[in-house]
Amino acid sequence: MQNLTKNQDDGYDFDILLFDQFSNHCLANTIEPLRAVNTLSRHRHYSWRFYTLDGGPVESSSGMRVEPHGPLSMGQGATLMVMPSYGFRGLDGWDTTRQLRTAAKRYDCLAGLDTGSWLLARAGLLDGYRATIHWEELVEFAETFPEVDSCRERFVFDRDRITCSGAMAAFDLVMHLIGEHLGPLLAMEVAQLFMTRDSARSHASLSRPSSRTVDRAVTIMQEHLERPLTVGEIARKIGCTQKTLETRMQLEFGLTPQGVYRRLRLTLARKLVTDTELKVTEIAFRSGYDNASAMTRAFRTEFGLSPTQMRNGGLK
């Protein structure tokens, strides 16, 4: 299951169950890409809430305090992410098990992040499912829960269950979901924001030669935004034919190389519009356009607003 249930506003809800000693790293890698999507798209595609078992505050392993929205008993919706991290073996008692079993009836999907898989398995909520966990715990996990089909993967989707092996894998998981929900181009923009490219596609696609070719092409495009290269020049730099590059770009993004290149340049233009006071003529030059009029037309087509309108907060 990769297409999670949408909410009534056509977005996706995530409720996150936190415990004392949760990992800041795992939480940030889960939430920040979702926040970035909302920021970049100027639309609330994702929303999230924090819960604890009793509604009281919790502290991360590094002392960050989180005040939840309430107790788990209040939560319901699309996806519940269970995130205990450190000290998880001391959390798998009857109260946790009872509350997770009850919550499973109110959520469309359950996700165990990092060591959250252990708590889900203890509650019997992974019986008959393929699942993973932090790899340091995988052997013991498999021995303790033989009813679970344990596997050594970064993240696993199986029907209405998602499991993930750690903090970095949580980032990969969320990037994969963004690509599935909203398309690879927006996922690529988020990956750019966090200065990573590979996570913009799923772990399955990354093993394909086409993905490696596309990654190298995108890197070259990013290095030549102000003075764009031709598609033929990019193909020669990565050692393939222009036809091969066009085919593989179409496979990964559903766009021609020119379309991907244009999106990269306009993404840069949007950042300069919103984050600087540069004149539109200068932004056009830095984005690889010969004149401001051409850039403005392309900008309006891509984002629905002119650069000036976007800078003024969307006012026309």
From TrEMBL:
* Record has RNA-binding as a keyword: no
Which Gene3D superfamilies does the entry link to? Answer: 3.40.50.880, Homeodomain-like
Record-level Gene Ontology MF annotations = DNA-binding transcription factor activity; sequence-specific DNA binding
* Keyword terms of this UniProt record: Transcription, Transcription regulation
The name this protein goes by in its record? AraC family transcriptional regulator
Q: Which Pfam families match?
A: HTH_18
Note the PANTHER family from the entry.
ARAC-FAMILY TRANSCRIPTIONAL REGULATOR, HTH-TYPE TRANSCRIPTIONAL REGULATOR RV1931C
InterPro entries (alphabetical): Class_I_gatase-like, Homeodomain-like_sf, HTH_AraC, INH-QAR
